[in-house]
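CHAIN AND CONFORMATION:

***
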Amino acid sequence: MGTRKIVTIGDETLRKVCRKQEKFDLRLAILLKDMADTMYKAEGVGLAAPQVGILRRIAVVDVTEDHSGLVELINPEITDREGTQTGREGCLSVPGRQGVVTRPMKITVRFQNRKGEWMEMETEGFEARAVCHEIDHLNGTLYVDVMDRELTPEEIEGHIPEDDAQ
């Protein structure tokens, strides 16, 4: 299992816009595997390349409990969004903090797979939230930049009013 160091808030890499991934080769396959391994080890549901110090438009997302739903997003772009959802978010690059963020309820995302083939995926709910969060990373944006409010330590441990709205 190849895991990489996750960079945290304050590292300038997290604030840069990532470059398009042009090569679909063994190096990319290794990076995708390492990113997934790193995400699972850190118990996250998504990880973007800048979070491991690489300024490329690459992210992995898996919101399933059993790690069976891995999605590899290369050069992703949201082509459609519907509705809104408001809920808690955290980030592996912002340890110990959480905030309330409003995101689209449903999105369509166009992206390339590890072979360079263009694909399209519709997703909603928690997975849509995770994909939006990771695409933000590719544009140098953290959830703390777009959150409605930050949660207190007590709220992080327990219930927040926004949970009732779902």
